[in-house]
Design a protein that fits this description.
The complex is a heterodimer.
Chain A lengths: L10 E2 L5 H5 L1 H15 L23 E3 L14 H5 L5 E7 L7 E9 L8 H5 L5 E3 L14 E2 L1 H12 L22
Antiparallel strand pairs in A: 2-5, 3-4, 4-6
Chain B lengths: L1 H16 L6 H33 L15 H11 L10 H17 L28 H31 L11 H9 L2 H11 L3 H32 L4 H10 L6 H4 L1 H14 L11 H4 L9 H26 L15 H23 L7 H29 L6 H17 L15 E2 L1
Helix pairs in contact in B: 2-3, 2-13, 3-13, 4-7, 4-13, 7-8, 8-11, 8-15, 11-13, 11-15, 13-14, 15-16
The chains are: A alpha+beta, B mainly alpha.
């Protein structure tokens, strides 16, 4: 459908004055700006030596939290893998060896290359077992290496929980209501 | 100053009669030193360019290799050396390989006549009239003979001094070239062949477009480049670069050509930017549109040749700006004509460094022109202004007015040009606008 003629507003570019026509003042102005930046404060972060200060809700590598007895906190409810839009969480549940819950994850693998770091697993988790940390410089030499299994994810917890940047967000180290058999 | 020009013609003819012998070793040493320093500087300029760019963008720039990243130059060269040489399968091999060599060698060659320090003693005072009329009285003849003898002695002195200058420290590869500036223009415009051949022979559309743009651009900007210095040449009365420096140095700080020919300097600088393919005129190699333009298909050391050529070109034009408009090695108080060679060298290097830095400041300040704007600037602005400037110089010389008249006259010419542009008819693009258009 063509545009109605009376709906079109024609505008003229603004007329340039004499100084603008000469261009030179504009160039001088530009040089002034660049020179000011030249001696201004630098914003570069020298990365490996200087670490960036990340906000506490930064979504980096996952970790599997431990409870107060050092066991994996996950109860293998599959909520995270169901919520995951990238389908990167693979859980195999097994009967729990401990009396305080029914199941525990025998296998818990996250494909870190496939993950889109949306944090929905963290939101879905009923017992705050999976959390995203502020680790971002994740590297590996092979795709297999980037499949993080349960031990690896727990070791991420061991690394990050005490460092202060990623405090454990649950109020207690206990398992949550969802896993308590009597409720 | 007609008598002055006569005098110079006289000196020159005297000199050409007793041609300087070619000093082999000083020349060879100078060539080696210049070659080494030029390449080293060109490599170093890549680092400086990156640093300047980074500082302007509030970054730090290369700082990992060596102290302050100074060894980055070395790392870059090593990278270029050890890269795999790839050749496009359907390229015209001979031309493809020739192009970078052409670009680099012409850039180096044009430096042969550029003086980079004090190369000559002060020029001779005007020579007495050579001939004497038959009807002259014996007393007049005697006086004439005396003057002649005195002049001969001065000439011999001068020659001896020149010999000292040349054999002890020769700050120019080919001294006493009377066509100096012509030689530079002739050779450095050959550099465009490197660009055109490189772009055409790589069998790549982007390269070809880059080469086409380069040819159009350089043909256009050669004209204002040549025209802009004609005023300086008229004022000096010589094409010899060393003489152009002396002419300014003798008249002191206010004798620098920049104060007499400010518009010519502006035109020369703009055209030189375009000749070097530097931003804001880097259309032949615009990364965003042409993925590198004429050197898209080049890598490894062939690419390094192109880049080195570009930087050497930049150094040469900076030298030219200093020589033609900023008094060469002369600087009030610090480096007077009587000062030692070292001071002059330092002053010269300082001025050139300033202009190279200015190149970089401009590069990271002004965005690239559109192609029609580029052409319009050359043909509608620079060439007419250069012609006006030339006419003004001719009038001042003809009427024997003092040279400082040219300063207000030049500035007035610029303002008048701006005023003319104000009342210019609208560009074709704007003509389709309806007459009832409202102002923004």
């Amino acid at each position: 459908m063509p545009i109605n003629e009376n709906e079109v507003t024609w505008v003229k570019p603004p007329r340039m004055g004499l100084l603008e026509r000469l261009y030179l003042p504009a160039i001088a102005q530009g040089l002034q700006t660049t020179l000011k930046h030249m001696f201004g404060k630098k914003v570069t972060q020298q990365f490996p030596e200087e670490r960036p200060k990340l906000p506490p809700n930064y979504r980096g590598v996952h970790r599997l939290n431990r409870d107060e007895q050092g066991r994996v906190k996950c109860v293998a409810c599959y909520m995270c893998s169901t919520a995951c839009p990238a389908r990167c969480i693979d859980i195999v549940a097994a009967p729990s060896p401990w009396p305080d819950r029914e199941k525990y994850p025998e296998v818990f693998v996250i494909d870190e290359l496939r993950c889109i770091y949306c944090g929905m697993c963290e939101q879905a988790c009923p017992c705050d077992a999976i959390e995203l940390t502020s680790l971002f410089d994740l590297t590996g030499l092979s795709r297999e290496e980037m499949m993080f299994d349960k031990e690896k994810l727990l070791s991420v917890f061991d690394q990050t929980a005490t460092k202060g940047e990623d405090p454990i967000r649950t109020k207690s180290g206990k398992l949550s209501i969802a896993s308590e058999p009597n409720v | 100053m007609p008598c002055r020009i006569d005098a110079m013609a006289r000196t020159r003819s005297d000199k050409s009669e007793q041609m300087h012998e070619f000093l082999f070793w000083p020349t060879l040493i100078t060539i080696a030193v210049v070659f080494g320093i030029l390449q080293g500087t060109a490599g170093f300029l890549v680092y400086v360019e990156r640093k300047v760019c980074a500082y302007m963008q509030n970054r730090i720039g290369p700082n990992r290799v060596g102290p302050y990243g100074l060894l980055q130059v070395l790392a870059d060269v090593l990278k270029f050396l050890f890269k795999e040489e790839t050749l496009p399968r359907k390229a015209d091999m001979a031309l493809f390989l020739l192009a970078p060599v052409l670009a680099f060698s012409t850039a180096l060659l044009s430096f042969a006549v550029v003086p980079f320090g004090a190369t000559e003693p002060a020029p001779l005072p005007p020579a007495p009239p050579a001939a004497i009329m038959q009807s002259a009285t014996p007393l007049e003849k005697q006086q004439h003979a005396l003057i002649e003898a005195e002049y001969k002695k001065k000439l011999q002195d001068y020659e001896a001094k020149v010999e000292v200058y040349r054999s002890s420290y020769q700050f120019i590869i080919a001294p006493n070239i009377d066509i100096g500036i012509l030689f530079i223009f002739g050779i450095s415009s050959l550099a465009v062949y490197g660009v055109i051949l490189g772009g055409w022979s790589s069998n790549n559309k982007y390269s070809l477009v880059g080469a086409l743009r380069a040819s159009a651009q350089i043909i256009s900007y050669e004209i204002p480049l040549g025209l802009s210095i004609l005023g300086v040449l008229l004022i000096t009365g010589s094409l010899n670069l060393e003489r152009i420096i002396w002419n300014q140095a003798e008249q002191g700080f206010l004798g620098w050509n920049i104060f007499i020919q400010p518009v010519a300097f502006l035109l020369f600088m703009t055209s030189a930017f375009a000749e070097c393919n530097r931003l804001p005129f880097d259309l032949p190699e615009s990364e965003q549109e042409l993925i590198g333009g004429y050197h898209t298909e080049y890598n490894a050391f062939k690419l390094a040749f192109f880049l080195l050529g570009e930087y050497v070109h930049m150094i040469t034009t900076s030298f030219l700006m200093v020589i033609l408009f900023f008094g060469g090695w002369h600087f009030p108080i610090i480096a007077s004509p009587e000062a030692g060679w070292f001071l002059k060298l330092i002053v010269f290097a300082g001025k050139v460094t300033f202009f190279i830095l200015f190149y970089m400041l401009i590069r990271w300040t002004i965005p690239r022109f559109r192609f029609d704007q580029l052409m319009a600037l050359a043909w509608k602005v620079l060439i007419p202004l250069a012609l006006v400037n030339l006419v003004m110089v001719m009038v001042v010389k003809e009427m024997a007015w003092p040279e400082w008249v040219l300063l207000p006259a030049s500035l007035a010419a610029v303002v008048v040009a701006g005023a003319v542009a104000l009342n210019a008819p609208p560009r074709p693009r704007d003509r389709r606008l309806k007459p009832a258009a409202t102002d923004l």
